[in-house]
Amino acid sequence: MWKYNKYQLGEIVIHTNVSILEFQVYDIYPGVPEERDNYLYCCKLLMGRIEDIGKIYKYQENDLTSMRAGTKEELSALLTESINKGDYERASQIQKLIG
């Protein structure tokens, strides 16, 4: 996993400037060098305009605010999606979070 990331895969977050936009952390990319506040988060839109739901957006760590951890059902759906796409590294990270 990562050393200093503030948010975890599957966590539900909101955008700090537009609090009605709700996202699920889909993937995490550490910056170089890997240090605090230097992460890029790929987030899947869960609540917002209907035509944009499911789209992936990229945000810096300071653009996001945590709402809650992902539920087991949400993490399981993310795990299934990762397996179906052949992204086994991300799938193993999500599996560790599920337990």
Task: State the separation between the terminal residues, measured CA to CA.
Answer: 14 Å
Shape: globular
How much helix, percentage-wise, in residues?
Answer: 10-25%
Q: Into which percentage range does the β-strand content fall?
A: 25-35%
Widest beta sheet: strand line-up: 4-3-2-1-5
Question: How would you describe this protein?
Answer:
The chain has a 5-stranded antiparallel beta sheet, with no helix packed on it. The longest helix is centred in the C-terminal third of the chain and has 13 residues. It contains 2 helices and 5 strands, in the order βββββαα. It is of the alpha+beta class and 99 residues long.
At a glance:
By secondary structure, the chain is α+β, with helices and mostly antiparallel strands.
List the helices and strands and how they pair.
Elements: E1 12-15, E2 22-30, E3 39-47, E4 56-60, E5 64-68, H1 72-84, H2 88-98
Antiparallel strand pairs: 1-2, 1-5, 2-3, 3-4
Helix pairs in contact: 1-2
Descriptive keywords:
32% strand, 99 residues, single chain, 5-stranded antiparallel β-sheet
